[in-house]
Every structure is written in C-alpha cells, then in structure tokens.
Amino acid sequence: MDRKLLLEHIGVEGIHTHDVYRKQGGYKAVEKALKSMSPDDIVEEVKKSGLRGRGGAGFPTGMKWSFIAKPEGVPRHFLCNADESEPGTFKDRYLMEKIPHLLIEGMILSSYALGCNQSYIYIRGEYMYVLQILEKAIAEAYANGWLGKNIKGSGFDLDLAVTTGAGAYICGEETALIESLEGKRGNPRIKPPFPAVKGLWGRPTVVNNVETIAAVVPIVNEGGDAYAQFGIGRSTGTKLISASGNINKPGVYEINMGITVEEFIYSDTYCGGMKNGKKLKACVPGGSSVPILPHYLVCKTAAGEDRLMSYESLSDGGFATGSMLGSGGFIVYDEDQCIVRNTWNFSRFYHHESCGQCSPCREGTGWMEKVLHRLEYGHGKMEDIDLLWDIQRKIEGNTICPLGDAAAWPVAAAIRHFREEFEWHVNEPKLCVTKNYGLVTEKKFEPVNA
Amino acid sequence: MSQENIQLPEDLLQEVGRQIAKFPEGMQKSALLSVLHIAQAHFGHLSEPVMDYVARLLHILPIEVYEVATFYSMYDTVPVGKVKLEVCRTGPCMIEGAEKIVSYIENKLGIKDGETTADGMFTLKTVECLGACGYAPMLQAGEKFHEHLTEAKVDELIEQYRNNPKANYLGL
C-alpha cells in the first residue's frame, strides 16, 4: 500500500488554504463526526486504529485519551504539542506549513472526542512564520464555521488558538509545555498527578503531537480498522520521517510502516542513497535521543533479519543492538563523520537544554560535554571512556523527566558500538584532530544486557 | 531608557490584548511568552524597565517576568544588534558544515560568536537545533529562516539586512 494518509494532497496548489483543502475532501471527517458519531465513538475508532504517539514515546493514543478525568463542571483542555525541537526532526513544521487545516481538523475531532471546548496549539518560538500560517488558517476555519459556537449546528463549541514558546527543547515534554503555557519557566512537573487528571490550570488535559492529531482525520474518515490495515503489527498506519545527514535527498517522507530501512535509505522514492557514493557509517533513526546504530546494524538486526521502519523492528535487540523509531528523525552518517564529535555535539545540546531542576541531568550533561570535548580534541585519557559510561548510567532513570535519559542514551550507544573509535582518539591525540576514523569493525554480540 | 518612556504603541497594545484574549479570564499570565516576544521586537531587548512594564501589562509580579525572560533562549536581557544571526550548529547542521558558516560570518563581520558589530547592526549567535535539519546548514535572522546556506548566500543576506534591518521581522 503506497497510499499516503496525511500528505496525500500535499502537491495540490493552494492546499494551505481552506477552500482548496475543502475541495480535496477537507473537513469531511468533522462533518461525519458531528453528524453521526458520539465523542466515545471517536475514542473507540482511535483505539481500534492502534495509533501511537508520533512525538517520540509511541504511547497508544486511544489509551491516553481514555485516562482523561471528567469531574463535573470542570473544563478540560486539549493541547497540541508543536514544540518540535528534537535534533533531526522537522516533520511537524512541514505538515503545519504545507497543510495547516489538517492539523486544525484533527484538533476539532480530538477536542470533540475529549469534550474540550478550549484548545491550544503550543508552537516553538522559532517557528514564528509557521505560527502566522496557522493563525491565518484558524481565522479561515472560524470564518467557515468549523470553529466557534455551535459548530455546524451540532451544539459543540470549540475555541482554538496558537500560542508560542521562546526557545526551550524541554517544553516538548508535556508537563513542561503546560507550565510554559501557563506563562512560566518550562520545568517539568513530578508525575503523578498526570495531566489527564491535573494539567493546564489544574484541569484535566491531554497533550498530543502534531502528527498524532493529524492522523485522527483519516481514522475518522475511513475508520480505525481501515487505518490499522496500513503498517505492520503494532506499528499501524503511516509515519512521517524527517531524513537528514549524508544522503542524496534529505526531506520529509510519509512511509507505510514496515518498509525496510534499506529501501528507505537507498531507494529513489526516499533518501536516494548515500551522497557522493560514500559508505554508510552509522544511523540515528529516531531523533538525537535514540541509540546510534553502527553500519552493520542499520539495515539488518543482530539476528540477520531485515530491519524495518517500525516501532518494533527498530528496537529489535533492545539497546544492545537496536534503537528506537522515536520521533522519526532519521540522521544518516557517512564514513567521513566522527562519532566522538557527533556525541560531543549532542551532549552539548542536552547540556544547553537541561532545565536545571534535577542535579543528575544539570551536572551530568555538562560533565559529559566536557569529557567528550576533551576526547574529541586529543586530550582524553583511556579512563575517560569508562567515566562517560559511569556518568550516563547515573543520569538515566534518576530525573523527573525523560531529558536525562535522552542525554544518556546517545552517549551509551556511542561507547557501546564505537568504543574502538573512542580509544583511537586517546591513542592518536594528534591524528584524531585532523583525520577521521572511518568505519568501525563488526562485533558479534553476546546475548547480555551491555 | 527611563520608566515613563516605556510604552508600546497603540497597534502593539492591541496585539497584546489579542494575545491575552486567547486565555480565560484570570489566566492572562499565559500570554507572557507572546507579550515578551512583542516587547523584545519593539524595544530591541528586554531591559529591567521593559520587563517591569510587561509585568504591569499582565498584572503579574516583575519576578514572574524575570524568571521567564532568563529561562528561554530567544529572549535577550542585554542589548543585541538590530539583526541577530543565529546559526544552528546541532547534529545534522554540523555534518553539513555549520562550523564553516560560523567562521565565515565571524571573519566577514569581525566578531566572535556571541558578539555584536561595533555599529550595532549584527549579533552572531550559535544556537541549538532549529528544526531545519534536512535543509542544512541554516540560520535564523530575527523571525526568518534561511536554509541551504553557502558563503555567497550569507553575503547576500548580510547585504540585504544591512540595507533594511527591519526585514528580519515578519510583521504582525
């Protein structure tokens, strides 16, 4: 099945406008839902679809929705997380920029399903021009009666507004996003209570990623079962992949989950192969937080099976030999790239973005950045490699939010798979500044949890 | 700037009102991040008197503004150039040569990362992932993204902004 579910009409001229979007079948899902479906019917279809959160965690959306508390007389809120900031990820921006009404339609459906009458899109501050596109589209939706009081005579009211961040990766974490939306610093909250019980302004709240919300539109249009026909196993539907790095065709691709990683990298339909005919060295398949895979574990799993673009296959082998689909931020590295440098670069990112609440993350990320810098510039010692391993292990699982894990995993995976390249940096302090190591040798993995 | 000089013009005050109206009554603090963007675009940076003014606009305490203004990386609490050139240097942008673009701008403008040109026109900053990984290398100038950078394209941009520094804002 090559059909696209989100980007089907992306090539149609003017698809960012209401009238063209409508002509292509836009807002039919809203008409259908408001006429013939109860809110619980929609939740049911989303459950049947098997849709999982597209922001990175992959939590089943229908289940997340079913947790929302419904105390009498307390308003509930539905929020769109458009704080896309995971290095390697730029799919939400693409979707909002090209086809903003798809997100708005998904927001209406989701808000109706959850009984929310005031919903917000929280977008990162740097996407100011996308915010303007969304505001224009929202104004069009109001003018055409898709938003506001008594939408299309259904009795359902919905107000939708966009609001902005101001440069903080941490606000992609849902409780930090809520804090930020309340006009505060983006410090994640301790859970429980979960947002479903106590979220925005202390009210029951659901936060979903842009792509997740957009996927509700085809689910309502075609039914949850039909949606689940796409994809493979528990990875149902299609996924937007942001492809970057040393490939011929970087960009955003909607894939039917289950195609092979090899096809994704080498086929002309997608990345178009390695740039300049270079060899593949490594791949980060799901955004900077997920474990990096060495060349021999990218297209095949440790068991020698084809690696597929799906939640399960990309994590096959656990962290010992697998990675994660994450946000779908697919970064490809060729033989000329330095893994120590890349790891240092990512550590600097996490250090910069740590909110500073928890000491393992606040101190640990900075410490890792410094040690990696030292290794990259030829001042490292052999013990530094074990020191790094020790620091990352003490961050993981010891922080309020997953930023600590996200900072630890790339370092752990780099050492696990590229230890020889780290050691070379210690043994060749002069050479490592001017030359690159090239490909690492293939290892046989013992079935232990390294 | 003395306190009494700090006043947004009528059109921007209306924009502030529009941001506040997005939230239920009593929740006007939620508009803080948007209002700080408006204030920064108008006053150039968020000085203490500007932050105090924003606090008055939103009926919140000055400390509530300070703690937010110092948390988010897009806010400047010290003066910067009329045009901020913010070059992304994370992961994919590094692979595609962000460091070369940074040194090129440093040499061209005679400033280092974080500094402002003597004429107060340009500030150069390196920043973390701006979500343009597939179109690297890239920089953000004010509110605009410039992608697939080359040295020639940087020359062009600098020329363009030198002639019209306001061009880095999208306009409300």
Could you walk me through the main structural features you see in this protein, from its secondary elements to its overall organization?
The complex is a heterodimer of chains A (450) and B (172). Chain A is an alpha/beta fold and 450 residues long. Chain A has helices at residues 18-23, 28-36, 39-49, 61-66, 91-98, 100-114, 128-143, 174-181, 210-222, 224-228, 261-266, 311-314, 318-321, 339-353, 359-376, 382-395, 403-427, 431-434; strands spanning 77-82, 118-123, 159-164, 205-209, 231-232, 235-236, 238-245, 251-256, 280-284, 293-294, 329-334. In chain A, α5 (91-98) packs across α6 and α14 (339-353) runs antiparallel to α17. Chain A starts with 17 loop residues before the first helix and ends in a 16-residue tail after the last helix. The mean pLDDT of chain A is 96. By secondary structure, chain B is an alpha+beta fold. Chain B folds into 2 domains: 3-69, Arc Repressor Mutant, subunit A (Orthogonal Bundle), CATH 1.10.10; 83-168, Glutaredoxin (3-Layer(aba) Sandwich). In chain B, 42% of the residues lie in helices and 10% in strands. Chain B is built from 7 helices and 4 strands. In chain B, strands 2-1-3-4 form a 4-stranded mixed β-sheet, with helices on one face. In chain B, a hairpin with a 2-residue loop joins β3 (139-141) and β4 (144-146). Chain B is elongated. The interface between A and B is large, with 56 and 43 residues.
* Spatial strand order of the main sheet of chain B: 2-1-3-4
Q: Determine the CATH superfamily of the largest domain in chain B.
A: Glutaredoxin
Q: From the 3D coordinates, which CATH architecture of the largest domain in chain A would you assign?
A: 3-Layer(aba) Sandwich
Average of per-residue pLDDT values of chain B: 94
Structural class of chain B: alpha+beta
Number-wise, the strands of chain A total 11
| Largest sheet: spatial strand order of chain A | 8-7-11-9-10
Please tell me the overall pLDDT of chain A. 96
N to C succession of SSEs of chain B: HHHHEHHEEEH
Overall structural domain count of chain A = 3
| Biggest interface, CB < 8 A | A-B, 56 and 43 residues
